Amino acid sequence: MPSFQLRDYRDADRESWLRCRLLGFFETDYYDDIWTERPDYELPAIRLVAVDDAAVIGVLDLVVDGELATIETVVVHPEARGQGIASALLAQALQRLPIQTGRVDAWTREDLAANAWYRRTGFREDHRYLHVYLGPGESRAGFSTPDGLDGPMHAFLHARIEDEERLRSRFRRVYVCRRYVLDLDQGRTSTRG
After folding, report:
1. In the predicted model, is pLDDT for residue 125 greater than 70?
2. How many whole angstroms separate alpha carbon 47 and alpha carbon 61?
3. Are 61 and 73 within 8 A, CB to CB?
């Protein structure tokens, strides 16, 4: 089992960061959320990695917007799972949050392990909606495009949770997207910052 060290992301981590994110998401409902560049955030961000030697084996990016911080990415390399890496990254990020931050949120789909991790680490679900994909061979009925363009070949859409049954009967890929929230209590808040 690899050991790991937590530290801030460095520009030299770019390739390893992208590889960790790709492989970590590959077996989840976010398998198609592929990035070829690491994002830069306009707002202040806590960008942490877990490394084994020079290889990134865990990632947590958390963007801070006043009283709310949002987990943009949290992922662990498949060969490094089960060691508490994601929880260690989260604990480190929570310690670094500005004192005025009172809530952390995150969005995830139906992946059982991800949902269980959020609940285990104190998050509670507070909102649901749908991610719907139009794919090859599915009806384009109801879609329109600008003049000069053929109908859509693929589409990614958001929909109301109330329409889940109807949309699952029409499209092969429909996911429930959940927002999880962690309210930072006063005792934790006073130890951060």
Report:
1. yes
2. 5
3. yes
Reported as type and span, the H/E element at residue 95 is: helix 85-96
Alpha-helix runs per DSSP H in 9-75 = 14-26
Q: Is the pTM of this model over 0.85?
A: yes
Q: Give me the phi and psi of 68, to 5 degrees please.
A: -115, 135
Element (H, E) at 106: strand 103-108
Q: Which residue type occupies 54? A: A
Element (DSSP H or E) covering residue 164: helix 164-170
Within 8 A by CB and 6+ apart from 160, the residues are: 129, 130
Tell me how far apart the alpha carbons of residues 111 and 30 are, in angstroms, rounded to a whole number. Answer: 9
How is the beta sheet containing 173-183 ordered, strand by strand?
5-8, 45-52, 55-65, 68-76, 103-108, 173-183, 124-134, 155-159
Neighbouring residues of 87: CB distance < 8 A, sequence distance ≥ 6:
117, 121
Separation CA 185–CA 141 (nearest Å): 49
The rounded distance, in Å, linking the Cα atoms of 46 and 98 is 10
Confidence check: pLDDT of 187 > 70: no
**Both tokens of residue 103?**
């809530």
Query: What letter does residue 153 receive in the DSSP assignment?
Result: S
168 vs 118: CA distance, rounded Å? 25
